[in-house]
Specification:
The complex is a heterodimer.
Chain A: H1 3-19, H2 21-43, H3 55-86, H4 89-94, H5 99-128, H6 136-160, H7 164-180, H8 193-199, H9 203-216, H10 223-247
Helix pairs in contact in A: 1-5, 2-3, 2-5, 3-5, 3-6, 3-7, 3-9, 5-6, 6-9, 6-10, 9-10
Chain B: H1 3-7, E1 12-20, E2 26-35, E3 40-44, H2 51-59, E4 66-71, E5 74-75, H3 80-85, E6 87-90, H4 102-112, H5 119-128, H6 144-156, E7 162-166, H7 174-189, E8 193-198, H8 201-207, E9 210-215, E10 218-224, H9 225-232, E11 234-241, H10 250-254, E12 258-260, E13 265-271, H11 279-288, E14 293-300, H12 303-314
Parallel strand pairs in B: 3-8, 3-9, 6-7, 7-8
Antiparallel strand pairs in B: 1-2, 1-4, 4-5, 9-10, 11-13, 11-14, 12-13
Helix pairs in contact in B: 4-6
């Protein structure tokens, strides 16, 4: 294991993040705070509690999950796309570093960033609503698993993309709609039965449901199913990454 | 003959290396090449000849279609950790993490190649390359020549035993080029094997121990530089006349002389390796025609002339 290389990439990525802290840390916190102000305080006060949880508090896990998905993808995709774009990827390819090590370093850095952001947002949310976290350990487990999975997806997108707009394509057209329709702002039990069934094909439902369960002990789908699905997505992302590296897809000519 | 040299393991050993890109372009066609330990090897060739593909195959940037590459006896694919750890690469393109400082860039590479932090060494490298004053500046703010130095510093940061320089002095001013030659020579002194590709024949002529010429994906020649120059070298004998002449006498034309510089010079090209250069009889013939000689000079053809000649012969 080339630990020095993992450390070099990881610290380099984290340093880049801190250097652009205004953009990378402050702006997601500000935009999430706006959600709390609008949906939690302004509109939320007119909405009944959902499954015994006040609406403002109910949306916290969903909002954090939404941001976690977006941030994980954007951090990881940018992290690997930028060296490709600037040409510095030659160094990674010519270094004595295995694929596994490359993924650990890039995905690890991206996941760390989005987990830190989520925790900052959680603290921010505490200013607006009363929070209870029933299962803190599981909350962290869901955070880390989801951050890792979506950082892997971001990594895949970063390797696949050959332009900046392609980097935006997947998050904008797929992840954000799925997150909005995946129970971020509502419980899917509030939907008509047909749409409840359709919602079960939305992977984000399982992520949000499991994460919300760790806060309030209420869930749209069984917690074991949520955990199983979360692990399944992780396995799927790992499989794709492994295939990419095996074939040298879009990395080595 | 020194048998030790003959049997020493090459630094890089390339056998039957071929690379066909997805587009169907055959960049390398069954290339065989050994690079000796401690030498400076210059790979010359026109654009698109396969130089960068060849380097990329050794360094891990390109997946070879077939063939094997050994670095210090280790396969570059099966044992990539062993091979890549000893190779430094200075790419042709001026890249670098542009928003990071020179210091961070160089330290990053050292870590990437599995070496622990060593500030004293990075300091020495930066000083050697006249980059010390720039260490806190972001790469994006540097001039092209300085960026090139940063790339060299990065490649040297992990103390490679083999250094690839892909067009190291492209777009670099003369002063900087001489500086780099000095750095490369120092590296060779310290035992580093150096492979450089270049357009500048002058560079190969100045630095290389051996020269390989690649064209259309094939190595068409590998030779000691001095032998190459001696073997293929032609000399021009220039005879300056006291008084210009309008036409060259038939007899002198038949001896291979040509008239140049508005009738003031007679030029004769001859092969330095030939049994007889024919200079003595030529001089006799010139004075027999009653021409008065003011001066004589000879000039050796440059590697560039040789190179162009070789490529012309093949097309």
């Amino acid at each position: 294991m080339n630990l020095y290389a993992i450390k070099a990439i990881y610290t380099f990525e984290m340093a880049r993040w801190w250097r652009t802290a205004l953009q990378s840390v402050v702006s997601p916190v500000v935009s999430t705070s706006l959600y709390f102000v609008v949906f939690g305080a302004a509109i939320g006060s007119r909405i009944d509690s959902v499954e015994g949880v006040s609406y403002g508090a109910f949306i916290v896990p969903g909002l954090i999950m939404l941001s976690l998905l977006q941030q994980s993808i954007s951090n990881a995709s940018f992290g690997i796309y930028f060296p490709k774009f600037s040409g510095t990827i030659y160094e990674i390819l010519s270094a004595p570093i295995s694929h596994v090590e490359t993924v650990i370093a890039y995905v690890g850095a991206a996941a760390t960033k989005s987990v830190i952001l989520s925790l900052i947002m959680l603290a921010t949310a505490g200013f607006f609503v009363d929070l209870t976290i029933a299962h803190p350990v599981w909350m962290v487990v869901f955070l880390i698993l989801t951050a890792t999975t979506f950082s892997l997806i971001g990594f895949i997108i970063g390797i696949w993309a050959d332009g900046f707009e392609k980097l935006q394509l997947f998050p904008l057209l797929i992840v954000t709609p799925l997150a909005f329709l995946g129970g971020t702002f509502y419980s899917i039990t509030m939907l008509p039965p047909v749409w409840q069934t359709i919602s079960l094909f939305n992977p984000v439902v399982y992520l949000v449901s499991g994460f919300r369960w760790s806060f309030y002990g209420v869930a749209d789908v069984d917690i074991v199913v949520s955990l199983g699905m979360t692990l399944g997505f992780l396995a799927a992302a790992l499989t794709v990454v492994t295939w990419m590296f095996r074939t040298g897809y879009k990395l080595r000519t | 003959m020194n048998m030790h040299v003959e049997t020493a393991q090459p630094a890089v050993s390339i056998s039957n290396l071929s690379k066909t890109y997805d587009t169907g372009f055959e960049a390398l066609k069954s290339v065989n090449l050994d690079i000796r330990k401690g030498e400076i090897f210059a790979l010359l060739g026109p654009n698109g000849a396969g130089k960068t593909t060849l380097i990329g195959s050794v360094c891990g940037l390109v997946n070879p279609t077939s063939g094997t590459i050994l670095v210090n006896g280790h396969d570059v694919i099966e044992e990539f950790r062993k091979t890549r750890a000893v190779i430094g690469l200075v790419p042709q393109e001026l890249t670098g993490e542009r928003y990071e400082t020179v210091w961070d860039n160089v330290s990053f590479t050292r870590g990437l190649f599995g070496k622990p932090r060593n500030d004293a060494l990075v300091e020495k490298i930066l000083k050697d390359l006249s980059l010390w004053d720039k260490r806190k500046e972001r790469v994006i703010t540097l001039s092209g020549g300085m960026k090139r130095r940063v790339l060299i510093a990065k490649a040297m940061s992990h103390q490679p035993a083999i250094l690839f320089l892909d067009e190291p002095t492209a777009g670099v001013d003369v002063e900087l080029r001489r500086d780099m030659w000095r750095v490369v020579r120092d590296l060779k002194e310290s035992g580093v094997t150096i492979i450089l590709t270049t357009h500048y024949i002058e560079e190969a002529e100045e630095m290389a121990d051996r020269i390989g010429i690649i064209s259309n994906g094939e190595i068409i020649l590998v030779e000691e530089k001095n032998e190459l120059m001696a073997k293929l070298g032609k000399k021009d004998l220039t005879i300056e006349l006291q008084d210009p002449i309008a036409t060259l006498p038939e007899h002198l034309v038949s001896l291979g002389l040509r008239l140049e510089r508005e009738g003031t010079q007679l030029v004769h090209s001859y092969d330095t390796q030939a049994e007889r250069t024919g200079i003595a009889s030529l001089m006799a013939a010139v004075s027999a025609e009653g021409l008065r000689i003011r001066d004589l000079s000879t000039s050796q053809s440059s590697l560039e002339d040789i190179f162009i000649g070789l490529l012309r012969d093949r097309t």
